[in-house]
């Protein structure tokens, strides 16, 4: 996948660009991931210090080099700031699949930006990478995320019970999937 590339390509939406994360984005990422409302149903607790966001950027670069994870920053074109991220994780080229993940700074919820960013990532996953299947797992209580996935065309495939333990809380996951043959480009 993306043979020889040193970094992810920039993908353009109408209001947002999906772009390669740089060390200088750590402060914007920290603002997103230190918000307990954003990480409420995340697989890890809120960040407490900037160094965690700096390590995240390093990890994103390392896992891209191994082609295990593609994580773009979502840049709001009008401000040039990173307001979220979209991720293709657990990339499995043999089986043509990956897991979709995303989050958005709370100040930008309710404006359709995550829908726009994910649609751009879906087009890349299905049309450029030619993946066959995207999957997502989502806490059943995370209504905005379930609504987003279903808006994108994801179908509920089952409930994985007690799948996560985050900061002492056991969480179930709704498992969802979207196949290339079901996907409608927008
Ligand atoms: C999941 C998350 C990204 C959803 O954010 P969101 O802002 O609700 O999602 P969207 O950007 O698609 O916006 C949808 C909302 O914008 C509205 N909207 C406005 N313009 C829109 C447009 N052009 N297209 C789609 N929706 C639009 C929709 O009506 C909807 O509003 P509603 O919430 O009042 O029904 C956000 O809640 C989040 O970051 N959560 C924390 C991280 C997280 O849980 N990630 C997922 C783990 S599984």
What's this, in brief?
The chain has 186 residues and is an alpha+beta fold.
Describe the structure.
With 186 residues, this protein is of the alpha+beta class. The protein has a domain at 11-132: Gcn5-related N-acetyltransferase (GNAT) (Aminopeptidase), CATH 3.40.630. Helix content is 26%, strand content 34%. It contains four helices and eight strands, in the order E-E-H-H-E-E-E-H-E-H-E-E. It has helices spanning 26-33, 50-65, 113-128, 143-151; strands at residues 11-12, 16-20, 70-76, 81-92, 97-104, 133-138, 155-166, 169-179. The chain has an eight-stranded mixed β-sheet, with helices on both faces. Helix 1 crosses helix 2 (50-65). The chain is globular, with a radius of gyration of 16 Å. The model has no long low-confidence stretch (mean pLDDT 96). The site of coenzyme A has 17 residues, from strand 5, helix 3 and helix 4.
């Amino acid at each position: 996948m993306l043979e020889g590339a040193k970094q992810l390509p920039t993908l353009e939406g109408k209001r947002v660009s999906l772009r390669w994360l740089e060390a200088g984005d750590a402060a914007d990422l920290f603002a997103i991931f230190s918000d307990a409302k954003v990480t409420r149903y995340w697989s890890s607790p809120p960040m407490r210090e900037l160094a965690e966001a700096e390590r995240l950027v390093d990890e994103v670069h390392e896992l891209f080099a191994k082609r295990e994870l593609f994580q773009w920053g979502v840049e709001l074109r009008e401000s040039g700031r990173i307001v979220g991220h979209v991720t293709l994780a657990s990339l499995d080229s043999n089986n043509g699949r990956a897991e979709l993940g995303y989050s958005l700074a709370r100040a930008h919820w309710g404006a359709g930006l995550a829908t726009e960013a994910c649609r751009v990532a879906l087009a890349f996953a299905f049309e450029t990478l030619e993946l066959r299947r995207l999957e997502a797992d989502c806490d059943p209580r995370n209504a905005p995320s379930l609504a987003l996935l279903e808006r994108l065309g994801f179908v509920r495939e089952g409930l994985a019970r007690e799948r996560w333990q985050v900061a002492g809380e056991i969480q179930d996951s709704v498992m969802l999937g979207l196949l290339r043959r079901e996907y409608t480009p927008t």
